[in-house]
Amino acid sequence: MDEHAAIALVSLEELHGYLPEAYVGLVLATGSSAFEATHALEERAQHLTRRNQAHRAAAGHQASSTHAYAVLGVRLTAGISPSGQPEWVAYGTLARGRRHEQSPP
Q1: Is the dihedral of CA 22, 44, 76, 87 positive or negative?
Q2: How many helices (H) and strands (E) does the chain have?
Q3: Which pLDDT belongs to residue 60?
Q4: Strands 68-80 and 86-99, bridge-based pairing
Q5: Beta strands 8-9 and 86-99, pairing class
Q6: Where are the beta strands (DSSP E) in 1-105?
Q7: pLDDT in tens, the chain (105 residues)
Q8: Half-sphere exposure of 46 (CA within 13 A, CB side)
Q9: Are the C-beta atoms of 28 and 78 separated by less than 8 Å?
């Protein structure tokens, strides 16, 4: 199974040069700071990526080293928890795709 050291987190809905082939799902994570929420989002995305790869392998799909996972449309929101502590939420859509080379005009 192909392991990924990092998953791109981008605020754009569409990333130039990246062609999503499938949307794995919504990824959501919380933290007491924007950094913690973003870090937790990346960890959650990595977990979902590994789970998606295992599911695809069990279904008989061959692993491809050309696939890249990215969380598109990352957003951060902040609020106050019921206990009065700051709480940050990071979320986006986890996609599986590949680099798309466009030919020059």
Answers
A1: positive
A2: 1, 4
A3: 81
A4: antiparallel
A5: unpaired
A6: 8-9, 18-31, 68-80, 86-99
A7: 445 445 777 887 888 888 888 898 999 999 999 999 999 999 998 888 888 888 878 888 776 666 788 899 999 999 998 999 999 999 999 998 888 776 555
A8: 11
A9: no
